[in-house]
Amino acid sequence: MGKIFFWGLAIACFLATAVFTAPGPGLAAEKPFTFGLLLVGPYNDHGWSQAHFDGGKYVEEKVPGTKMIYIDKVNPADRAGVTIPQLVDDMVEKGAKLIIANSDDMKDGTREAALQHPEVHFVHISGDGVLTGKAPKNLSNLMGRMEYGKMMAGFVAAMTTKTGKIGYLGPLINEETRRLSASAFLGARYAWEKVLKKNARDLKFQVTWIGFWFNIPGVTADPTQVVQNFFNTGYDVVISGIDTTEAVVVARQKKKQGKNIWAIPYDYLGACQGAPDVCLGVPYFNWGPGYVKFIKAAMSGNWKSEWDWLGPDWKDINNPDTSTVGFAPGPALSVSANKALDAFIRDLGNGKINLFKGPLNYQDGKPFLKAGQTASDQQIWYMEQLLEGMSGQSSAK
Amino acid sequence: MPTYLRQTRQVAITLFAVFFFTSLILLISGAPPLSAYYHILRGSLGSWNKISHVIKGWIPLTLCGCGLLFTFRIGLWNIGVEGQVMMGAVFSTALLRLGLQSQSPGLFLAMSLAAGVLGGAAWAVIAGFLKTKGDVNEIFAGLGLNFVAQGIILWLIFGPWRRPGVASMSGTETFPVALWLPKLSSLRLSPPALVIVIVALIATGLLLRYTRIGLNLKAIGNNPNAAFLFGLKPGRYMIVAMVFAGGFAGLAGSLQVSGVYHRLLPAISSNYGYLALLVVMLCNYNIWLVPLVAFFFACLNVGSIQLPMVLQLDSSLAGVIQGALVLAILGVYAWRQQNRRAQSAESIGHRA
After folding, report:
1. Do the chains contact at B315 and A73, CB–CB below 8 Å?
2. Cα torsion B257, B264, A100, A271: sign
3. Interface test with B, best of A219, A220, A243, A384 (most B CBs within 10 A)
4. Low-confidence ranges of chain B (pLDDT < 70)
5. Which chain A residues have a beta carbon less than 8 Å from that of B299?
6. For B57-90, what is each residue's pLDDT tens digit?
7. Which candidate from B162, B263, B286 shows the least CB-CB separation from A396?
8. Are A390 and A205 in contact (CB under 8 A)?
9. Which of A249, B49, B154, B289 is geometrically suited to a Cys-Cys bond with B283, CB 3.0 to 4.6 A?
């Protein structure tokens, strides 16, 4: 009996306090415009999620009267039992008028939440809900044209490799990851054939997938082991396609053991920090400008449901105010390779080089682009397979 | 000392221990304890939406708790409850997949619940047979089967049930809304799920208290050797207890699929099974406490999301607080047992 009494009492106290502390009518005037950020990984992961977190900070700085709230590690492995609609409800109660969901994995949850909160605006990063017509009017999609960043990554990888073997540490397999790894391959093949004048058959480009955006012990393959395996089998440059920093971390260890190897991280401008001897550079997202655009639209009442695929600012791909995609050359990149990279970027920008131009075949030999044909945005977005010349799985077996 | 005074003292000591431990941890991690408690409270019960999310977690916890009462009653440690939740989810997903093209989704929803019960029960019976026929301790069998169940889920998600063109551990394709458990969307609640839990609670209470099964489970649990003398077969009743435990756990897994996530994902069981073990132990196996304590844990689960959101604390702290809570309560419990033993030893000494 005593226990029933105890727990009853405990819960009664709990309820009573909750009632007393329930939010009263707040001060409506001079309230900031609150926007919420749902991050799939830790806010300080030196990768995908930190780039988004910094984008939010940028908005707070550049758009007066805005305030960010965020919650990180939004994935079922880290937060068992927590769902996207639940977090959105909470953010809306805290006053959020616009919510940014930063993972492909949040697609369905974000749509469900958007339907439940028609008065709140939503931006789903990397999704295609607007393209497929599944998104309600208050939901938009935003992505950066990382294809260019990945081409640059592939380019410097091929300029640097001594063995001609490049490893690509892939996350899970979907349309986004196929087009990004294919872009890296196209950049590498261009450098190999056109700049170094070597035979394409001597370039090995292997993609190995771990099964998710980051390591989940017991669920995904361990990215640390995948990278070690690359370096132990003659691959001397690893390009990371995952949200976190394993490629650079392992590369540093191997370098200390005397191996001549390099790595290219992903997503976050500061990802080369602490790895000056192995980091060739990083293709990164600069979410600030894209965020600002959507938040200003929501604040001014000019919201439109859009599918936005923002590219680099070719005048200066590293301009924090205008360029959504950038490439920061790393300390380990040689002077000559850096010079070639500058020319490559210039030619990409002025349209002299278009790597998504036929003839290009899919991995199994099926034509992707006919000779002379350039790919449309939709063709690139929805690539069905990896490209001919790449090794690794194109989809699940 | 009068009984009520002693009980009040006990409650006070337990509460004190709980707050002492958790405050200590909060202080060590540099968080103001009072505002942390306040935010957990507000974050779990501060609005109807939040309460409904608490109830969403309370449902599987209570269901698993009901099931575990049967196995604890007969003295079995059904650690395999987590895997039983998973298999319930797997069987349900299989049924719902069959219903994808169907014109009568309601029928398949109902069948998926039944399949969940079946899946959980079947998984539990394996552990039961290993115990009764193979003499394998149910703890080891259960743990092993949990790993196997997790493996099956991963294989299904990455293999036969993968989304077209995609290889991702994030989960299977989301079911169309017709195959979701009906939900009052303004309240974020699913009335059928709520009804199921309440029926489960009442049924468990009645079965354990007023039926022969309940009585026999208790008799065997208290003294398996004596049970033989009364012509009871412990092995058979162990299987019965496992069927109930697995069935309820499987139902919880089924509701996770059709009512919460609407797809199968690796973390579908969300550790509710393991958490329910704690709940039932803290309740001292008293059924009427199970929903209350489960509610408390569900509050903690939902409310603790405020720690990173408002106080910028590392979110793993919520787990640490939960652990401290359990430790504190178990600590007081152990201390009480020791006291009781010392007292009875003393009184024996007096008599002599």
Report:
1. yes
2. positive
3. A219
4. 1-4, 6-8, 10-11, 315-316, 318, 346-352
5. 14
6. 999 999 999 999 999 999 999 999 999 999 999 9
7. B162
8. yes
9. B289
- Residue A359, preceding bond cis, omega within 30 degrees? yes
**Selected residue of A5, A7, A38 to mutate for chain B interface (largest B Cβ count, 10 A):** A7
**Interface touch A211/B168, C-beta < 8 Å:** yes
Indicate the residue of A69, A73, A76 with minimum beta-carbon distance to B265.
A76
Report CB contact under 8 Å: A393, B286: no
Burial class (CB in 10 A: 0-12, 13-18, 19+), A311: middle
Task: Name the pTM for this structure.
Answer: 0.88
Structural domain boundaries in chain B: 58-283
| Predicted pLDDT at A8 | 57
User: For the segment A26-59, what is each residue's pLDDT rounded down to a tens digit?
Assistant: 444 468 999 999 999 999 999 999 999 999 999 9
Q: Enumerate the residues of chain A whose CB falls inside 8 A of the CB of residue B265.
A: 76
Q: Mean pLDDT of all residues in chain A?
A: 92
Q: What is the pLDDT of residues A2-12, one digit of tens each?
A: 555 555 555 55
Q: Are strands A281-285 and A325-329 parallel, antiparallel or unpaired?
A: antiparallel
Name the DSSP class of B257: I
Output phi, psi for B46, to 5 deg.
-75, -15
Distance (Å) from the C-alpha of residue A23 to the closest C-alpha of chain B? 8
**What residues in B contact A242, CB-CB < 8 Å?**
none
Choose among A11, A18, A23: nearest Cβ to B296: A11
A11–B292 C-beta distance less than 8 A: yes
- Shortest CA distance to A53 belongs to which of A35, A65, A79? A35
Instruction: Check if the beta carbon of residue A9 is closer than 8 Å to that of residue A42.
Output: no
Task: State whether residue B190 is helix, strand or coil.
Answer: coil
Q: Which two tokens stand for residue A24?
A: 């009263």
Rounded CA Rg of chain B:
22
> Would you state the pLDDT for residue A24?
41
Hey, what are A296's tokens? 């200003």
> Hey, of B52, B170, B190, which one would you mutate to test binding to chain A, going by the most A CBs within 10 A of its CB?
B170
**Interchain CB contacts (distance < 8 Å): A and B:** 148
Report which of B145, B169, B157 is spatially closest to residue B83, judged by C-alpha positions. B145
Q: How confident is the model at residue A60 (pLDDT cuts 50, 70, 90)?
A: very high
- Is there a contact between B57 and B293 (Cβ–Cβ < 8 Å)? no
Domains and CATH numbers, chain A: 30-144+288-310 (3.40.50.2300), 146-282+328-391 (3.40.50.2300)
Q: How far apart are CA A223 and CA A266, in angstroms?
A: 14
DSSP A189-228: HHIIIIIS---GGG-EEEEEE-SSSS--TTTS--HHHHHH
Indicate the residue type of B310: V
Contacts of B161 in chain A (CB under 8 A): none
Residue A28: the pLDDT is: 45
Q: String of b and e for B309-338 (b: at least 16 CB within 10 Å)?
A: bbbebebebbebbbebbbebbeebeeeeee
Residue A162 has pLDDT above 70, yes or no: yes
Nearest to B167 among A17, A108, A211 (CB): A211
Listing DSSP states for B282-327 in one string gives: HTTT-GGGHHHHHHHHHHHHHHTTHHHHHH---TTHHHHHHHHHHH
Closest to B251 measured CA to CA, from B172, B183, B192, B301: B192
Higher pLDDT, A39 or A218: A39
Q: Which residues of B touch A14 (CB under 8 A)?
A: 41, 45, 296, 299
Supply the pLDDT for residue A319.
97
